[in-house]
Amino acid sequence: MQTLIGVLLLIGLGFVFGRYAEQRHFKRLRQEEARLQSILVFNTKEVPAQFQPCRVSLVGGNTVIAVDYFKSFVASLRNIVGGNVSSFESLIERARRESIVRMKQEAEQLGANAVFNMRIETSAIGQGDDKSQVSVEVYAYGTAVVSDEPVR
Amino acid sequence: MTLTNIETIPGKTIVSHLGLVQGNTVRAKHVGRDFMAGLKNLVGGELVGYTELLQESREQAVERMTEQAIAIGANAVINVRFSTSSVTSGAAELFAYGTAVVVE
Description:
The complex is a heterodimer of chains A (152) and B (104).
Chain A: H1 2-35, E1 40-41, E2 54-68, H2 69-81, H3 86-110, E3 114-125, E4 135-147
Parallel strand pairs in A: 1-3
Antiparallel strand pairs in A: 2-4, 3-4
Chain B: E1 2-3, E2 14-28, H1 31-43, E3 44-46, H2 48-71, E4 76-88, E5 91-103
Parallel strand pairs in B: 1-4
Antiparallel strand pairs in B: 2-5, 4-5
């Protein structure tokens, strides 16, 4: 009985604080994305003539994000019936957007106009003995282009 | 040393290709950080300690790759790629590789 109460408490804690943290994070992400909108991101390899002459540099940003008890509980329920595990979808979306924002911030410090050939790499790390502890690392990287002349 | 993950360096000509260069690091996690991560697993969210740890490791992998490139007389590395793999449950390997070239 006591373990059940303990588990329910942890799930409740995860639900309340996890949801609060997630909403706050999404709000901050929207603000940062709006601010950094002027830095264009491409996943093509060619740098068009309008950006040249230019200097190039490798930039990247990473994020490690962990699941909360509520999310892993919901996911374990989902495993029974199948379907979208939306609680994990939003988690990875947060990590990915945060990584792109960090990459753009690094590009911004260099004074870059654009980032070319952006790639995103996702890997599960730090999986302990307990399978429910999942943390995911997302790394976004690309070639920042700093134009010497203003882009037309 | 110029690093890019595209196949060229805009505005410069590649004089010669010197082949693949690579760098890797295997990092284990810190006990204190592991403890904090365990706490974070209750409420979710970003594990700042791990983010920094992996970023440092990745920089080190890139540094080792750059050293290798300098050693064979290159002045740029193109087509840089990263990969991460978990070797055991407690450690992660970060790997960076690319093609060393001479540009002018």
